[in-house]
Amino acid sequence: SPIEIKEFMTNTFAILEVSANRKHIDFQLSSPEELYMEGDEDRLRQIFVNLLSNAIAYTPEGGKVEVDITVTELDMIRISISDTGIGIPEKDLPRIFERFYRVDKARSRGSGGTGLGLSIVKHLVELHKGTITVESKVGQGTTFTLELPQIH
Ligand code: ATP
Ligand code: MG
Protein backbone atom coordinates (compact mmCIF):
# COMPACT_ATOMS: atom_id res chain seq x y z
CA SER A 1 0.00 0.00 0.00
CA PRO A 2 1.14 3.60 -0.57
CA ILE A 3 3.33 5.16 2.09
CA GLU A 4 3.50 8.92 2.55
CA ILE A 5 7.17 9.66 3.06
CA LYS A 6 7.10 12.77 5.23
CA GLU A 7 4.75 11.26 7.79
CA PHE A 8 6.71 8.04 7.64
CA MET A 9 10.00 9.83 8.32
CA THR A 10 8.45 11.81 11.17
CA ASN A 11 7.31 8.56 12.81
CA THR A 12 10.73 7.02 12.24
CA PHE A 13 12.40 10.04 13.88
CA ALA A 14 10.11 9.54 16.88
CA ILE A 15 11.43 6.00 17.41
CA LEU A 16 14.98 7.37 17.73
CA GLU A 17 14.19 10.59 19.55
CA VAL A 18 15.38 9.38 22.94
CA SER A 19 18.85 8.42 21.69
CA ALA A 20 19.15 11.67 19.73
CA ASN A 21 18.10 13.73 22.75
CA ARG A 22 20.56 11.92 24.97
CA LYS A 23 23.39 13.21 22.75
CA HIS A 24 21.73 16.58 22.16
CA ILE A 25 21.57 15.86 18.47
CA ASP A 26 19.23 18.08 16.52
CA PHE A 27 16.92 16.33 14.05
CA GLN A 28 15.61 18.24 11.05
CA LEU A 29 13.26 17.15 8.30
CA SER A 30 12.47 19.05 5.13
CA SER A 31 10.03 17.86 2.50
CA PRO A 32 8.22 19.87 -0.18
CA GLU A 33 4.86 18.15 -0.30
CA GLU A 34 3.12 14.84 0.19
CA LEU A 35 5.02 12.17 -1.71
CA TYR A 36 4.05 8.54 -1.92
CA MET A 37 5.94 5.37 -2.53
CA GLU A 38 4.98 1.74 -2.78
CA GLY A 39 6.64 -0.57 -0.33
CA ASP A 40 6.65 -2.80 2.65
CA GLU A 41 6.33 -0.62 5.75
CA ASP A 42 8.48 -2.83 8.00
CA ARG A 43 11.27 -3.05 5.46
CA LEU A 44 11.21 0.67 4.77
CA ARG A 45 11.29 1.27 8.52
CA GLN A 46 14.35 -0.95 8.78
CA ILE A 47 16.14 1.06 6.09
CA PHE A 48 15.61 4.40 7.79
CA VAL A 49 16.07 3.22 11.37
CA ASN A 50 19.45 1.79 10.33
CA LEU A 51 20.59 4.94 8.54
CA LEU A 52 19.34 7.30 11.24
CA SER A 53 20.85 5.18 14.05
CA ASN A 54 24.17 5.25 12.27
CA ALA A 55 23.91 9.01 11.88
CA ILE A 56 23.26 9.35 15.62
CA ALA A 57 25.89 6.78 16.65
CA TYR A 58 28.68 8.30 14.56
CA THR A 59 27.92 11.94 15.36
CA PRO A 60 29.37 13.59 18.45
CA GLU A 61 27.35 15.28 21.17
CA GLY A 62 25.59 18.44 19.97
CA GLY A 63 25.65 17.55 16.27
CA LYS A 64 22.94 17.61 13.67
CA VAL A 65 21.10 15.04 11.55
CA GLU A 66 19.13 16.31 8.61
CA VAL A 67 16.76 14.54 6.24
CA ASP A 68 15.95 16.26 2.99
CA ILE A 69 13.31 14.95 0.60
CA THR A 70 13.02 16.06 -3.04
CA VAL A 71 11.81 14.73 -6.39
CA THR A 72 14.26 14.08 -9.23
CA GLU A 73 13.82 14.81 -12.93
CA LEU A 74 13.25 11.09 -13.46
CA ASP A 75 10.38 11.19 -10.93
CA MET A 76 12.22 9.35 -8.19
CA ILE A 77 11.90 10.37 -4.54
CA ARG A 78 15.36 11.42 -3.37
CA ILE A 79 15.97 11.19 0.35
CA SER A 80 19.26 12.43 1.72
CA ILE A 81 20.31 11.78 5.28
CA SER A 82 23.18 13.99 6.39
CA ASP A 83 25.04 14.17 9.66
CA THR A 84 27.77 16.33 11.12
CA GLY A 85 29.62 13.30 12.43
CA ILE A 86 33.08 11.75 12.30
CA GLY A 87 32.86 10.89 8.60
CA ILE A 88 34.21 7.89 6.69
CA PRO A 89 37.72 7.81 5.17
CA GLU A 90 37.73 7.74 1.38
CA LYS A 91 39.54 4.40 1.27
CA ASP A 92 36.73 2.74 3.28
CA LEU A 93 33.80 4.19 1.32
CA PRO A 94 33.74 1.47 -1.37
CA ARG A 95 33.44 -1.25 1.29
CA ILE A 96 30.94 0.04 3.83
CA PHE A 97 27.98 -1.80 2.25
CA GLU A 98 29.77 -5.14 2.67
CA ARG A 99 28.58 -7.50 5.37
CA PHE A 100 30.49 -7.14 8.68
CA TYR A 101 32.60 -4.25 7.35
CA ARG A 102 33.31 -1.61 9.98
CA VAL A 103 35.66 1.30 9.38
CA ASP A 104 37.88 0.95 12.38
CA LYS A 105 37.38 -1.53 15.18
CA ALA A 106 38.98 0.79 17.69
CA ARG A 107 36.86 3.82 16.93
CA SER A 108 33.60 1.91 16.69
CA ARG A 109 34.21 -0.33 19.69
CA GLY A 110 32.00 1.78 21.90
CA SER A 111 28.98 1.55 19.63
CA GLY A 112 28.83 -2.26 19.75
CA GLY A 113 27.61 -2.77 16.19
CA THR A 114 28.05 -5.84 14.01
CA GLY A 115 28.68 -4.20 10.64
CA LEU A 116 25.54 -5.69 9.14
CA GLY A 117 23.31 -2.61 9.10
CA LEU A 118 24.34 -1.08 5.78
CA SER A 119 24.48 -4.39 3.91
CA ILE A 120 20.85 -4.99 4.93
CA VAL A 121 19.93 -1.42 3.99
CA LYS A 122 21.43 -1.80 0.51
CA HIS A 123 19.64 -5.10 -0.02
CA LEU A 124 16.28 -3.64 1.06
CA VAL A 125 16.72 -0.50 -1.08
CA GLU A 126 17.38 -2.70 -4.12
CA LEU A 127 14.28 -4.80 -3.32
CA HIS A 128 12.35 -1.53 -3.66
CA LYS A 129 13.98 -0.82 -7.05
CA GLY A 130 15.97 2.01 -5.54
CA THR A 131 19.58 3.11 -5.25
CA ILE A 132 21.78 4.27 -2.38
CA THR A 133 25.02 6.24 -2.51
CA VAL A 134 27.28 7.80 0.09
CA GLU A 135 29.48 10.88 0.33
CA SER A 136 31.63 11.68 3.31
CA LYS A 137 34.43 13.85 4.66
CA VAL A 138 36.39 12.81 7.70
CA GLY A 139 35.72 15.16 10.58
CA GLN A 140 32.88 16.89 8.75
CA GLY A 141 30.12 14.39 8.18
CA THR A 142 28.37 11.91 5.96
CA THR A 143 25.45 11.97 3.55
CA PHE A 144 23.58 8.91 2.36
CA THR A 145 21.35 9.54 -0.67
CA LEU A 146 18.54 7.18 -1.61
CA GLU A 147 16.36 7.25 -4.67
CA LEU A 148 13.11 5.32 -4.55
CA PRO A 149 10.27 5.14 -7.10
CA GLN A 150 7.41 7.59 -6.59
CA ILE A 151 3.78 6.62 -7.10
CA HIS A 152 1.04 9.11 -8.02
P1 ATP B 1 25.28 -2.47 12.97
O1 ATP B 1 25.25 -3.80 12.29
O2 ATP B 1 24.89 -2.52 14.39
O3 ATP B 1 24.57 -1.42 12.18
P2 ATP B 1 27.57 -0.89 12.30
O4 ATP B 1 26.84 0.40 12.54
O5 ATP B 1 29.02 -0.94 12.67
O6 ATP B 1 26.84 -2.08 13.03
P3 ATP B 1 26.89 -0.56 9.51
O7 ATP B 1 25.64 0.16 9.87
O8 ATP B 1 26.83 -1.55 8.41
O9 ATP B 1 27.50 -1.31 10.76
O10 ATP B 1 28.01 0.51 9.15
C1 ATP B 1 29.30 0.05 8.74
C2 ATP B 1 30.37 1.01 9.17
O11 ATP B 1 30.26 2.21 8.40
C3 ATP B 1 30.27 1.47 10.63
O12 ATP B 1 30.93 0.56 11.49
C4 ATP B 1 30.95 2.82 10.59
O13 ATP B 1 32.34 2.64 10.68
C5 ATP B 1 30.61 3.34 9.20
N1 ATP B 1 29.45 4.27 9.20
C6 ATP B 1 28.17 3.97 8.88
N2 ATP B 1 27.37 5.05 8.94
C7 ATP B 1 28.18 6.09 9.30
C8 ATP B 1 27.98 7.49 9.52
N3 ATP B 1 26.76 8.07 9.38
N4 ATP B 1 29.05 8.24 9.88
C9 ATP B 1 30.29 7.67 10.01
N5 ATP B 1 30.55 6.37 9.82
C10 ATP B 1 29.51 5.57 9.46
MG1 MG C 1 24.81 0.55 11.87
Automatic annotation (TrEMBL):
<feature type="domain" description="Histidine kinase">
    <location>
        <begin position="1"/>
        <end position="152"/>
    </location>
</feature>
<protein>
    <recommendedName>
        <fullName>histidine kinase</fullName>
    </recommendedName>
</protein>
